[in-house]
Amino acid sequence: MQTHQILDRKGRDVATITPGSPVRAAVEQLGSANVGALVVSDGGTTVAGILSERDVVRRLASDGPALLDQPVSSIMQADVLTCSGTDLVDDLMHRMTEHRIRHLPVVDDGQLVGIISIGDVVKTHVDALETERDQIVDYIRTGR
Q1: Are 114 and 104 in contact (CB under 8 A)?
Q2: Most buried residue among 6, 10, 57, 95 by CB atoms closer than 10 A?
Q3: 3-state secondary structure of 75
Q4: Residue 127 — pLDDT band, cuts 50, 70, 90?
């Protein structure tokens, strides 16, 4: 299965925030959108960085509450791994595991078109395994 097929199922909405927004606004948005990461973008169509809950928590531990007034750009990950709509789910799973990341923005022709989480990848993999199991059980029962 390809990335665009996951997006077709789950939707292409991406929670974004501008680099100059305060971290406090990012924390509020992470909570209200019920997401684990925000794509940092000036206009919502390109990727300037990514900010995860993990990034915020780690910096809060070292910087304290003053971090909340700093701009998102001061703690975002600027070197963002992305994927395209034609990437295969197995490739995403390996990339996310290898780099220990939980979110991959989907970029086609330089434009942000969605985001894939590790949960999306696992769900897709489990669905495929269940389909395969059902086919094997049907074959055993019917001989066809």
Answers
A1: no
A2: 6
A3: coil
A4: confident
Residue position matching structure tokens 């974004």? 16
Question: In the structure, what pLDDT confidence band is assigned to residue 60 with cuts at 50, 70 and 90?
Answer: very high
Distances (CA, A) of 132 to 5, 88, 95: 18, 18, 24
- Of 110, 27, 102, nearest to 70 (Cα)? 27
pLDDT of residue 71: 98
AA identity, residue 7: L
Task: Determine the residue type at 117.
Answer: S
| Helix residue spans in the chain (DSSP H) | 3-10, 23-33, 53-63, 89-99, 118-142
**102: Cα separation from own chain's centroid:** 6
As a whole number, the mean pLDDT across the chain is 93
Give the pLDDT confidence score for residue 19 in this predicted structure: 97
Return d(Cα 43, Cα 65) in angstroms, integer: 28
Angle (CA) 66-67-70 rounded to 5° is 105
